[in-house]
Write a structure and sequence with these properties.
The chain is an alpha/beta fold. The chain has 15 helices and seven strands. Strand 6, helix 11 and strand 7 form a beta-alpha-beta unit. It is globular. Bound molecules: guanosine-5'-diphosphate (GDP).
Length: about 325
């Protein structure tokens, strides 16, 4: 094993923050030699992973995610937990800027020794961000964080991706009953294991109650994700620090119910196998398009398909034939 890997693994086992940060940087690196080392490190750390409750958190920009995560994180730390906050934000891909990462966020939480906040890896495709965040999550677990929060925002497929890497997916909603914009996010409601009507403070309270009733109604028409869990809809305020305890309580109940029915481990096992497949598919795709025979045909065939001269099916057939032939 490479001495750098030994050194980092040792530092992580001894709870050195510098080693944690360096290990995550290694995982995020694009250099092939770093990739190799990151693979070794993850393998070495694997026996020490899996002990955190993994919670995904999503909601539209402005719903109060960072305020909530800070209040929630501080609450957990007061109760003796160690909390890591990671992010999946592929928005730079689409908008050229980051939605989650640009502001100074969670200042109080970031000062806590039992908290670690890591922004989303930048300049990656969603698949790339997801992989790096998953690996960072494992490193955080090996380090000893027992709660990992993975924050995301509804850009493209990012919510599905985060739901696929966590035990519990939490949706934050605004106290706007019947809001059109939120209606569009029905697909996200289907992913949620719990929903919070956030900002349920001051004058917002009646609206929040109404929103809650509507969401509870809407949930009735969705088929439940688990026969052993009914999605709770809670009211909370990250700013006024209200309802935070109930959120943790809900998570505890969820964990107990899922552990009892065996779904907790089953879900993780399925997630990790899905992860293997998606990584394999990425690698196979790279291998295929980098093959010399394929690479030489690809631009011409792409043009031919673009101009309607060849069908996609024919192009694929030729590419596969080219791949199977001895290299040019
Ligand atoms: P994010 O974009 O989802 O991370 O949202 P932020 O946490 O940055 O909050 C967006 C805005 O909503 C800020 O101006 C916050 O002060 C405000 N805000 C956040 N949480 C609450 C809350 O619980 N109640 C109220 N009334 N305002 C909040």
């Amino acid at each position: 094993m490479d001495p750098i890997v030994e050194h980092l693994a040792d530092g992580i086992a001894r709870g050195q923050l510098r080693s944690l940060a360096k290990a995550i940087t290694l995982v995020e690196s694009k250099l092939p030699e770093h990739n190799q080392l990151a693979g070794q490190l993850l393998e070495k750390l694997l026996p020490f992973t899996g002990n955190a409750l993994r919670i995904g958190i999503t909601g539209v920009p402005g719903v109060g995610k960072s305020t909530f995560i800070e209040a929630f994180g501080l609450h957990l730390i007061e109760r003796g937990h160690k909390v890591a906050v990671l992010a999946v934000d592929p928005s730079s891909q689409i908008t050229g800027g980051s939605i989650l990462g640009d502001k100074t966020r969670m200042e109080l939480l970031s000062r806590e020794t039992n908290a670690y906040i890591r922004p989303s890896p930048a300049g990656e495709t969603l698949g790339g961000v997801a992989r790096k965040t998953r690996e960072a999550m494992l490193i955080c677990e090996a380090y000893g964080f027992d709660v990992v929060l993975v924050e995301t925002v509804g850009v493209g497929q990012s919510e599905v991706t985060v739901a696929q890497m966590v035990d519990f997916f939490l949706l934050l909603q605004l106290p706007n009953a019947g809001d059109e914009l939120q209606g569009i996010k029905k697909g996200v409601m289907e992913l949620a294991d719990g929903i919070i009507i956030n900002k349920a403070d001051g004058d917002n309270q009646p609206k929040a109650q109404l929103a809650r009733a509507q969401i509870v109604n809407a949930l009735h028409i969705l088929s439940p994700r688990s026969p052993n869990w009914q999605v709770p809809v809670l009211l909370a305020s990250g700013l006024a620090k209200q309802g935070i305890d109930a959120v943790w309580d809900m998570l505890g109940k969820y964990r107990s119910a899922m552990m009892e029915s065996g779904e907790f481990q089953e879900k993780r096992s399925c997630q990790v196998v899905d992860w293997m497949w998606s990584m394999l598919m990425d690698e196979v795709k790279d291998m295929f398009v980098q093959n010399r025979n394929v690479a030489s045909l690809l631009p011409g065939l792409r043009e031919a398909v673009h101009h309607g001269v060849t069908t996609p099916g024919m192009a694929v057939k030729r590419l596969i034939e080219a791949y199977r032939r001895p290299l040019l």
